[in-house]
Design brief:
It is an enzyme of class 3 (hydrolase). This is Glucosylceramidase. The protein is an alpha/beta fold and 373 residues long. The protein contains 7 helices and 17 strands. The two termini are 38 Å apart. The structure holds 2-acetamido-2-deoxy-beta-D-glucopyranose (NAG) (3 copies). One 2-acetamido-2-deoxy-beta-D-glucopyranose binds next to β17.
Amino acid sequence: MIRFVILFSAFITFAYSEDCDVRNFPDGTVCVCSANYCDTVPSLDVSIGKYQVYSTSKSKLGFSSKTGLFSTQDPAQNVDNVKVDRSIKHQTIIGFGGAFTDSTGINIQSLPTEAQDKLMESYFGKSGIEYNLGRVPIGGTDFSTRAYSYDDFPLDTTLMKFALQPEDLNYKIPLIRKANILTNNKLNLFASAWTAPPWMKTNNDWHGIGFLQTKYYQLWADYMIKFLKCFLAYLGVERAVELGSWARGAKYIEDIFDNLQYGAGGWVDWNMALDETGGPNFIDNMVDSPIIVNATQQEFYKQPMFYAIGHFSNLSESDSDVQALAFLRPDNLTALVIYSSQSSDITIQIEDSNNQKAEIYIEANSINTVIYE
Ligand SMILES: *[C@@H]1O[C@H](CO)[C@@H](O)[C@H](O)[C@H]1NC(C)=O
Ligand SMILES: *[C@@H]1O[C@H](CO)[C@@H](O)[C@H](O)[C@H]1NC(C)=O
Ligand SMILES: *[C@@H]1O[C@H](CO)[C@@H](O)[C@H](O)[C@H]1NC(C)=O
């Protein structure tokens, strides 16, 4: 009887995570999520001498995890190796994130509440990829359903009529609040504007070649300050969507590697959620997004791009077909991200400057994160 109880309690503390609900499309594979189901990130399971590898590959989407033990021996056969030198440190990572565009809000809100929660958890939550950075558009962007600024009253040179818009109140602010709760108040935001109100510009237009008129430099600065005050008061050409495209995920990985190697302290994606056509966008500039919402079917699809960013955002040289970057995490664990664009599986040796060695199996077209002390 006692034995049974012990076994039972050991069972319920076992690291638990949800697998990818695979669906194949002509361009590739996605993981399907809905109000009832969404895959999660397996929890951390490392200790001295034991490493954990998280993997995502073209043939197996989602995050799978396995553990292994370090040794001090070199492998029997000759394999490539990745060396981690703890004495050389580069930039500090600020974080990873995406943009709270109007389209992001419209699409997320087109899902049932439980599915919305799963989508936000996927990006910001503990069982998700833990984004901690957000970009906030000041006014509208092309990923809005209309052109607007916070003062569309020509020659209102005192900004008397300045006001946040329904898009801020209905989409951006509620989502930012949710994200902030999910990150335990650790969300960092930065804001940027697409355009000044047309009447402040030389061409009096939303787009085209126009500049801020010199006489409005101060007014434009005041406009930004007003935005910050109002907003904080509330807070407290390719085919657009290629569902499941591993190639697009690979482009994200390569871009993030490049940016980090040249000293970037973070990386912020554009729209977090778009619809099946890659919108809405009022100038028909449809694009792809790591999460695509199918409002008709009340579900959303996490694409390879989503998992690609996840390997960096939850943590943490060369143009060869195997790239690696190591991050020292705030909890002092090391996270070594290894990306392979080779078309066959390989084995590589990882070797840390504290003489921990391990052979790691790397699947074809995969991104892997090795975590250890
Ligand atoms: C992400 O971080 C959480 C909390 O630190 C951890 O439980 C999880 O295993 C991590 N996932 C990855 C892929 O590093
Ligand atoms: C979205 O759902 C609709 C309705 O079930 C379905 O017809 C459509 O094929 C779905 N879109 C995708 C990309 O699966
Ligand atoms: C990480 O290591 C540094 C330097 O050894 C130490 O000061 C810090 O307290 C450690 N942090 C954690 C979370 O253990």
